[in-house]
Amino acid sequence: MRSRACIGLLLFLSACATSTPTPSARGTRSQRIANLQRAAALPWTDGGQCVVREASQPWPALVERCYQALDHDRIEFHDTAGRCAVASAGAGAMGVGLCVLVAPEIVLGAVIVLGVVVVAVAIKEELNAYELRHSYPEETGASRGTKVSSREAEAQRKPKSEPEPTGQDWQPPAPPGPLDRTRRASCEPVPVPHAGGDDPHNACADEFPPNRYPGMDVLVGGVRFDALQVGVRVLWEIKTHRFDTYNEFVREQEIATEYKQITTERDSAAACGYGFVIGVSTQAHKDALLRRNRTLNVVVTGCKR
């Protein structure tokens, strides 16, 4: 009887251990989303760019780093709980504001926003992307490069006992769901590590647009881009070649190769509703691309190698 009780207890404990996700697996993401949701109720002068950049940090650190980006003309802080007196004496209104905002729970009346708060663009995009990933995980998995497509997943769920159609009875398989869902999933920007290891190129991609995901490329519509610009729907292809040092033949070959890549990227960006910009280091490089196609949007970044 005692041995049965011990076995039952061990089984119960092992089930608990395997059914509960580890804090490390879910903590950072849940903290990021909670911070974004909390910041969405506040007015920001930078479109929420700082919040998105710092959202993975603890809330107090985010507030400290992004406090100056708040629209202070539309927000008032009141120490209704009486716990920010020291901050008020030491740093004036800024001390009170920081003290009130970093509190685990905002006391009623402590933060008053004047007018209607429209969720900042960058924060809204980040929350929409999170919602999409959780609404259609199968499709978003495909956009992240997984090998199982939605149609293959549907086939795996089909009972094996169901006979396969043969001969003239065969009909093309129907898509697993509405086409707009698949398109939305593939158009979701998915950050991936910078390719290559070209540090000057990657630094330019992060700093010049500037990049919404520093240190990352982004997949949109199955195509890799160097950067997604902060606060707007604009994708970037960055070129840092020392184009001016090439001879005429090499320049022509380089432009021909680049133009094929650029055409693919521009078409993918347009299909997903994004703008597309090519950043080059020199005016000569820009002029060469525009001679190939005057409709290209080319910007001189001045980035050095």
TrEMBL record:
Organism the protein comes from: Corallococcus praedator
Tell me which positions the record assigns to the signal sequence.
1-17
Give the transmembrane region(s): 106-123
Protein name according to UniProt: DUF6310 domain-containing protein
Q: Which Pfam families match?
A: DUF6310 (PF19829)
Q: Does the keyword NADP apply?
A: no
* Stretches of the chain forming a coiled coil according to its record: none
Nucleus found in the keyword field: no
Q: Which UniProt keywords apply?
A: Membrane, Signal, Transmembrane, Transmembrane helix
- Region Disordered, annotated ranges: 139-204
Q: Which residues form the DUF6310 domain?
A: 180-303
Show the ranges annotated as biased composition (Basic and acidic residues): 149-163
Superkingdom field:
Bacteria
